[in-house]
Amino acid sequence: MNLKLMREMDIFPIFLEESRKKHLLADQDIINKICFNKIYLLNLKYNFYLHIPKEEFYKELSRDEVDAAQEKPYIIHYVGECKPWFRSADFFWSSFWWRYARKTYSYEKIIMDISVEIARKNTNNARDEIRSYVRHKMRFYKITICFIILILLIYAVFNLFFYK
84 with 36, same domain? Predict the structure, then answer.
């Protein structure tokens, strides 16, 4: 990115304004919209998208270019909801991402953030399960109490009429 030119064009407020709008691929959509005809597109292997059907790329690139990028990507862009740090180990590029994450200085922070997120989700799930259990038990107790009251009423009526 030519940051000097971007500062001269005072482009950052435009980025901020555009970031408040809904975009499919936020960062890339915003850059492409604002910098249209001012950017040079790199080979797909430098920005390989996961979870976008190959057919989408075939509209602009040859099948060989797409296959070569998929076979040996240089930079993998984890687009959308499918992030290897949020998915199970069987996710296609997950082990690749984790191998390099372990080599970073922020690996412990990544693990801590994920642990906190899992704990938060589990806490919410546990709270919901407890609420559901209590509601179920309350319904059971209400039915039981109503049944006991009904038996007591029958017993009282029976005694009232038959044991005068």
Answer: no
